[in-house]
Amino acid sequence: MNAKDIIQLNNEQREKLSEENLQIYEDMLIYIRLKSNKSEQQTEEVLLELLDHMLEAQAEGKKASDIFGEDYKGYCDELIKEIPGEKSSTIALFLGFIIIQFIAIISFVHGALGFALHYFFELGSDIFQLSLGKGFTIIIIDLLILYLFVKVVLKWIQGSAFKTKKPKKSLEFFQIWLISTTFIGSMVLIGYFMPDFGLTLDIPIITFAVIGAILYLISIILNKRYRITK
């Protein structure tokens, strides 16, 4: 079975756990999965093996602590050390997929929104002056911000594992809202304050929507061919 099939089996088998064991296992699952530099295939095999052990112990009336000890985080850290790293080609393919989708969505939204505002509400222009230097720099900076955003969110999620007292949902919502607002605001401000430089091209606004749609289609084809996300 490949990693995606194992995940599906894991989701089905996990429903057999008791409420207490399910909470412990899901904390372990989140903590181990979020080590993004590890092989997905090997990680999912380890997680399924953990689940099998828990189900066997549960059938015998044992607790999770009887198998893994009281220090679940320490146990997971030892397991993570044994999991090999992901292949460079797989990481490169995934990063390429994310970059294409990111540019596709930004381009399509910019083009479709600009087109709609101009032709339906007579706001803005149907021609966009694209500064190549500014545009390229903004894309690079936005991708770096996106990378930092993902790292911060994953670290925050991982840090929530194994807490005996879970924070209120309202507090968690506020924390993730604050993180998201900070990073999105950074992207907007960079685009607003960065001066134009380099060659400038006059491009019909609808062109951005077309380019975005083509790039998104390419990302779908890549995903189906290489099963990047499913």
UniProtKB/TrEMBL annotation:
<protein>
    <submittedName>
        <fullName>DUF1129 family protein</fullName>
    </submittedName>
</protein>
<feature type="transmembrane region" description="Helical">
    <location>
        <begin position="127"/>
        <end position="150"/>
    </location>
</feature>
<keyword id="KW-1133">Transmembrane helix</keyword>
<keyword id="KW-0812">Transmembrane</keyword>
<keyword id="KW-0472">Membrane</keyword>
<feature type="transmembrane region" description="Helical">
    <location>
        <begin position="171"/>
        <end position="193"/>
    </location>
</feature>
<feature type="transmembrane region" description="Helical">
    <location>
        <begin position="91"/>
        <end position="121"/>
    </location>
</feature>
<feature type="transmembrane region" description="Helical">
    <location>
        <begin position="205"/>
        <end position="222"/>
    </location>
</feature>
<dbReference type="InterPro" id="IPR008316">
    <property type="entry name" value="UCP029876"/>
</dbReference>
<dbReference type="Pfam" id="PF06304">
    <property type="entry name" value="DUF1048"/>
</dbReference>
